[in-house]
Design goal:
alpha/beta; Rossmann fold; seven-stranded parallel sheet; 13 strands; globular; two-stranded parallel sheet
Length: 330
């Protein structure tokens, strides 16, 4: 992966901070930057949801630096931003369902931690700040495909926390002249996604259960649909957001997806076809806070960032038979 560069300028003399760099998407951003010769890549992560195995991949690289720290602590954020040119902010407590069970921790990490990082980036004169938002901010708005300017009421504390990020980003850009870009991820899947735990995402959970010959759980009747997005597309969007030179593109929020729509049942049937399984799923009640259908309009990202997703659902990790993949719950 990442043989094709998504940037045009040399990275040798540039320094990057990836918060949540030991996590699924964060570790892929670190991998890309190191692979293409970044001068310094610092990771800030408390390993609450990240993995030491992910950061161990980079331990032999001289440009790599790991800092164990928590974005809920402003001093840690200030130290992490020292001497940094660009921030990629991925640190968050994911999962709609986890936020319903524990909204306080979700708020403290996703909203309070985000505010700490914005302030630290301002104080340390970071050139540009790119952060992970979420398709969950569309809430109960029924329109498809989802357009950035049309959002409804949030359906979970997780969605509220991510929308608060977008509001803070807009205010900081206006008041402190910061360059900030938000990326609304749509159901990202790819290597290194954790299949374990009560909030495991759907693809690794399906694969885990099929390998153990037990019936995977589908919430609802399987008709819920998602815009499944391979992680390399997300890395591309982050790099193009970091380095875009069009002033109109800065201080915006963008959908990051492929623009395709697949039901959960189609996903399950695809995995069964690849694995040769004939197992029958177990249907249970729909979950509180889940959005029924999700499909992104990516025309804004194409126009302003030159975002061109190169890997679709069929060509992603599933189609290549890499079963260590999953959905990033958004």
């Amino acid at each position: 992966m990442y043989e094709t560069p998504y940037h045009t300028q040399p990275l040798t003399n540039l320094s990057f901070l990836v918060t949540g760099g030991a996590g699924f998407i964060g570790s892929h951003l670190v991998e890309y930057l190191l692979k293409h010769g970044a001068g310094k890549v610092r990771v800030l992560d408390n390993l609450l949801t990240g993995s030491e195995e992910n950061v161990a991949l980079f331990s032999g690289n001289r440009a790599y630096e790991y800092m164990k720290g928590d974005i809920r602590m402003l001093p840690a954020c200030m130290t992490a931003c020292e001497g940094i040119d660009y921030v990629l902010h991925e640190a968050a407590l994911g999962s709609v369902q986890r936020s319903i069970s524990d909204p306080v921790t979700t708020h403290r990490i996703n909203s309070g931690g985000f505010l700490n990082m914005l302030w630290a980036a301002k104080e340390k004169k970071v050139k540009r700040f790119v952060y992970a938002s979420s398709s969950s901010v569309y809430g109960d708005h029924p329109g498809l495909p989802k357009k950035e300017e049309l959002i409804g009421k949030p359906l979970s504390p997780y969605a509220v926390s991510k929308y608060s990020n977008e509001l803070y980003a807009e205010v900081f850009a206006r008041n402190y002249q910061q360059e900030i870009i938000g990326l609304r991820y749509f159901n990202v899947f790819g290597p290194r996604q954790n299949p374990e735990g009560p909030y495991a995402a759907v693809i690794p959970a399906f694969i885990r259960d099929i390998k153990k010959n037990r019936a995977p759980i589908i919430h609802g009747d399987g008709s819920n649909s998602r815009d499944f997005t391979f992680v390399e597309n997300v890395v591309q969007a982050n790099m193009k957001a970091l380095f875009c030179e069009n002033p109109e593109a800065v201080n915006q929020v963008y959908n990051v997806a492929v623009g395709g729509q697949y039901t959960v049942r189609q996903l399950f049937d695809t995995i069964c076809s690849i694995t040769g399984s004939d197992i029958t799923p177990r249907l249970v009640a729909q979950r509180q806070g889940d959005i029924a259908h999700s499909l992104a309009d990516i025309s804004k990202a194409k126009r302003l960032l030159d975002y061109q997703p190169t890997v679709d659902f069929e060509k992603g990790g599933l189609g290549e038979g890499d079963f260590n993949v999953g959905i990033y719950t958004t």
